[in-house]
Amino acid sequence: MKLTIACDFDGVVHSYTSPWTKVLDINDPPVPGAIEWLTAVALDPEIRVIIHSCRFAMEPEAAWYWEATPLRPRIRALQDWLHHHGMTAKAIAGVEVWAYRGKPHATVYLDDRGFRFEGDFPSPEALRALKQWNKP
């Protein structure tokens, strides 16, 4: 069985330093080392890598939005961004894009907004004190 890595896009692969605009606007550069790492795991035959993003599910709930922005252009925008930043077509083919609500099933989750649970529940104060790795 392959190791499945579910990797968040914004804040992990994409630096996400500019304000949010639209789902198809991916304006910032990659996090340093992200393209090299993603290429390595995408080409590893023992690893299944899935990129997921709330950007695909955070637009308005209205049906008109989903009809106006179908799934394929959203996936293509992310793949084009990867290619623009140096990822090869072969490596991109090894990356699944999860463009649905919720997170995919995985063995490991790589996320900039996560909390590693190790048996002790964090206090409300500790939760409020958590910061994204790239935000002061």
Structure explained in plain terms:
- It is globular and about 45 Å long.
- The N and C termini lie far apart (39 Å).
- The protein has five helices and four strands; from the N terminus they run E-H-E-H-H-H-E-E-H.
- With 136 residues, the protein is α/β, with parallel strands linked by helices.
- The model has no long low-confidence stretch (mean pLDDT 86).
- The chain has a four-stranded parallel beta sheet.
- The longest helix is centred in the middle third of the chain and has 14 residues, at 71-84.
- It has helices at 34-43, 63-68, 71-84, 89-93, 124-129; strands spanning 3-8, 47-52, 95-98, 108-110.
In short:
With 136 residues, this protein is an alpha/beta fold.
Which key phrases capture this entry?
4-stranded parallel sheet, 5 helices, 136 residues, alpha/beta, globular, 30% helix, 4 strands, 14% strand
Q: What class, by secondary structure content?
A: alpha/beta
Global shape? globular
- How widely separated are the two ends? 39 Å
Rg, alpha carbons: 16 Å
Strand content range: 5-15%
The strand line-up of the biggest sheet is 3-2-1-4
The DSSP helix count reads 5
The number of strands is 4
What summary fits the major beta sheet? Answer: 4 strands, parallel
Succession of helices and strands: EHEHHHEEH
Average of per-residue pLDDT values? 86
- The percentage helix is 25-40%
Q: What are the segments in which pLDDT stays under 50 over at least 5 consecutive residues?
A: none
